[in-house]
Amino acid sequence: MLVNAYHIGTPGKKWGSSEVDQWRSERVKSRSYLTDVVSALDPLRDSFDVVQYGQLDYDSVDGGKIDHALFAVKTKDWDAKKPSVLVTGGVHGYETSGVHGALRFLAGGEAARYAAKGVNIVVAPCVSPWGYEHIQRWTSSAVDPNRSFASRTDPEQCGSQEGAALVGLLNSCGVENWACHVDLHETTDTDETEFRKSKAARDGLASEPGTIPDGFYLCGDAKNPVPDFQRAVIEGVRSVTHIAPADPDGTIIGSPVVDEGVILYDYTALGLCGGVTNARFTTTTEVYPDSPKATDEICNQGQVRAITSALDYLLADMAEK
Prior knowledge:
Helices cover 34% and strands 18% of the residues.
């Protein structure tokens, strides 16, 4: 039975500004973007270029303004003629290992090691700082940033400040053809207990119960599935954490499983961050931090292993040409 189980809004009616204001007023800042993310970039400045690529301007819960600066980390001596790699974390700010996995990839030496092999790397470790601080999927305006990438090249067509800023960053890199993009995400129990319900209420729909997969999986691009690449990432992550099995109907979160731990979405049609480049090799990771088999450390390691497995595949492909 379909039910509307969220406490904000009128069943069957989309939210207006008053409902969004109520939702925002109930959000609680639970951690610091400045402390956890921005400060972690300072030790990287000798080895990388740390660049500010945007500035968010939102109303805050207390009636003031949110003016988070957005930062990316780029390999030095950027050469647009080299194969270029994008890593994004925290598009959904509540998905913690995406942020900390991206930071660990930078701080642990892996990014420098792969850059030395002839690729450019740019990492946007926390695309949605407000979501990170408030442990929320949406922006402060109740917009899902991972449905807001309506254009790869025109920031004004994007449906969020976060999306527009990231597109502007990519435009500034001068890359015509990206080689690889790894977008780091999580699927959590709160997807079912909170975020699906709030989304249904926001959109004036009924909330339909779903399932949460126990384990790591990937969302590839339905228009560019590259199954061997997805399989290589799954095999790499398998040594760190378990791979999500399919549900009895052969799906993960309602999408058909096309290979072990792999489902496909149409990145462009949905406005997903995974489709923000024209990269040949793209994937969206999904770690499951609420599994009894997982820890925060395992999730962070899984994200790093996903990135390095993707880059190993890219380098092998380059070597064959």
